[in-house]
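Hi R.,

Quick one: here's the Adenosylcobinamide-GDP ribazoletransferase sequence you asked about.
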Amino acid sequence: MIKSFLISLQFLTAFPIKMNLPMDKTHIEKSIKTFPLLGLFQGILFSLLLYVLTEWTSLSLLAVAFAVWLFTILLTGGIHLDGWMDASDAYFSYQDREKRLEIMQDPRTGAFGVMAVIILLSSRFLFIYEITSFGNSLTLLLIGLIPFLSKSVMGTMLLTIPAAKKDGLASFFQKAGNSSTLKVYPFYLAALYVCILFIDNQFILPSLVLTLIAIGCYLFIRKISVTSFGGITGDVLGASVEGTENILWMTLWLLHYFAMG
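And here's the predicted structure, written out as tokens:
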């Protein structure tokens, strides 16, 4: 399981894993099982960075927010942002499925991809900055949930939506897994809710809201993926992670205004 987690870390983050890891079907399937755990690991790092910078440094809230925002980009090496740009270029081209898949394979970035990433990153910075200004222990816990839920959405998409093409990273991972691979995801979520309940039951409602929003993101992205691309690709999965995380950051931002004071 540790090797499988390292495979996820190697493929989906910028951590320099300088090991020859086994890439057989068994380890790849277990790697898919660790996607939410990888997300939780990322979320803990985000929360830890926010806590350290706010409590142990004299940096302004603007500087703290910028550091956390930048870290969310650097931690993945921009791999999901690349998918977001490519998928945006393809989706907003309003071409047929085959042409959209060709556009996603084009290494050049078009105007729609540039505009989409500017909107994504600028809005995320706004959400992080204002969330930082509301900062409390509840905020730190909920930030940890964001990448956990987005990686859960990605893993669910991978094994419940057909691949749009027979080659590529998405198809490679998809061939190793099956529907039973996802059975562990609800157990992860249940374990988190139990931990949250023991910490403070006031955390349950906003956590539930974030979970329901993540489910809504999955259903929406599933429809877009099938109708616009004929299924998933690596770029579509990357875009789903970025899109879901941004919606969850926005949800947490709104919760601070209307539910969490």
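The chain is about 75% helix and 0% strand.

Cheers,
M.
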